């Protein structure tokens, strides 16, 4: 009997970093406009990531709805975490452009 392996879509390795960048940029733009309170940043990032993940379903090689929801939500939370980590580190250690 031949064993079959389920392979995670290789396209997702390209889509997730793009979703991270797009989600982070969109959320930061919304944050600068004062559209939401900073304390709601993770929730807004998650929702924006999910919406962008759904929008990315039109791209060739995109996964199923569940996979794209997962990828978008993960990208939203991960991208915002990374951005906030870097900017807070810069403020804490005086590494910002002042």
Give an account of the 3D structure.
The chain is mainly alpha-helical. The protein has three helices and no strands. The protein has one domain. The protein has helices at residues 12-33, 41-55, 65-93.
Secondary-structure map:
Elements: H1 12-33, H2 41-55, H3 65-93
Helix pairs in contact: 1-2, 1-3, 2-3
Give average pLDDT, whole number.
78
Sheet-strand content, in percent, reads under 5%
Q: What is the first-to-last residue Cα distance?
A: 65 Å
Largest sheet: none
Briefly note the structural class of the backbone.
mainly alpha
Give a short summary of the structure.
The protein contains 3 helices and no strands. By secondary structure, it is an all-alpha fold. It has one domain (12-30, 37-90).
Question: Could you name the key traits of this structure?
Answer:
mainly alpha, 3 helices, 98 residues
